[in-house]
Design brief:
Elements: H1 2-14, H2 20-43, H3 49-66, H4 72-78, H5 81-87, H6 95-121
Helix pairs in contact: 1-2, 2-3, 2-6, 3-6, 4-5
Length: 122
């Protein structure tokens, strides 16, 4: 999953073709959510996927609202490429749509991963 989601998520940040602004600033949010859902489910195997994905969604929404502030710490983090990828640089109401979509897909993904892994254990 990581070998798929990380490269495609990063690619959305560098894509320069048709609709690049939308792909660079919006679609990337879907893959961002999926990545975090998968990552947390990897470490917290005893927590139900829905709870993990709701946590990721909630935390990402908080991060989006933090874009409205000018905290010096956030400015420092955003001065680096990895910081801009992780916490973004600007607020947009439309981003929430992509966060919800990504968390929903993340929930499906994690649920399917866990079902597949439990079948393979038998």
């Amino acid at each position: 999953s990581f070998l798929f989601i990380i490269p495609i998520g990063l690619y959305t940040k560098f894509y320069s073709g048709l609709s690049s602004d939308w792909i660079n600033h919006s679609i990337g949010g879907v893959f961002y959510e999926i990545f975090w859902c998968i990552l947390f489910s990897t470490f917290f195997t005893n927590i139900r996927p829905i709870r993990i994905c709701l946590f990721v969604l909630g935390f990402t929404c908080i991060l989006e609202f933090l874009q409205l502030s000018d905290f010096s710490f956030l400015q420092f983090v955003r001065s680096y490429f990895i910081g801009r990828i992780l916490i973004s640089t600007s607020f947009s109401w439309t981003d929430f749509v992509y966060y919800f979509i990504g968390s929903g897909i993340g929930w499906l993904w994690v649920t399917q991963l866990r079902a597949s892994l439990s079948k393979n254990k038998l």
